[in-house]
Amino acid sequence: QYDVIVSDEPVVHKTILLGDSGVGKTSLLVKFDTGKFHSGSFSATVGIGFTTKVVTVDNTKVKLQIWDTAGQERFRSVTHAYYRDAHALLLLYDVTNKTSFDNIRAWLGEIREYAQDDVVIMLLGNKADCGLDRAVRREDGERLAREYNVAFMETSAKSGQNVELAFIAVARELKCRS
Ligand code: GTP
Ligand code: MG
What we know:
single chain; 6 strands; 34% helix; 24% strand; small monomeric GTPase
């Protein structure tokens, strides 16, 4: 005889935002969470924290525990500790900052070193609203993503372009795998 426990509680998927300081990780999460964008002076994230969001994919609830990390070099060792049990990683660069794009290879190297082999990775070229200041072409982002066999989108935390879509795509992939 068995006691069957039926729960509506969705499984929690740990998702981490990564990328250089200033690429827009906090802005992207705030936009997704509240719909708001704060322009003005930039305050770098110190430490680490998470926001929980439930996304509906094909009538199924997928719960994302989204961790916002500090991009500054001096916090990297702290961040590494969070990679191991991550289910998904959103890796951001800033399309107006070529260095942040060039550093993606190093980020992917760290991911290979510290994260699980089957972690879901999504590369995001953020600040896509900044037409005139653009320093990285969309094709370059696409090519890099293809080279590493990861998904890719351009986003804007300011305009909201692809913000929900990026998280939904990750949730969909996580749902397929679980
Ligand atoms: P760290 O916490 O240091 O790792 O940086 P971060 O990646 O969290 O960057 P943050 O979200 O704080 O954004 C840095 C700056 O870029 C802020 O001034 C934001 O207002 C601005 N910003 C972020 N996303 C966008 C975007 O999509 N478009 C534009 N135009 N500005 C953005
Ligand atoms: Mg931040």
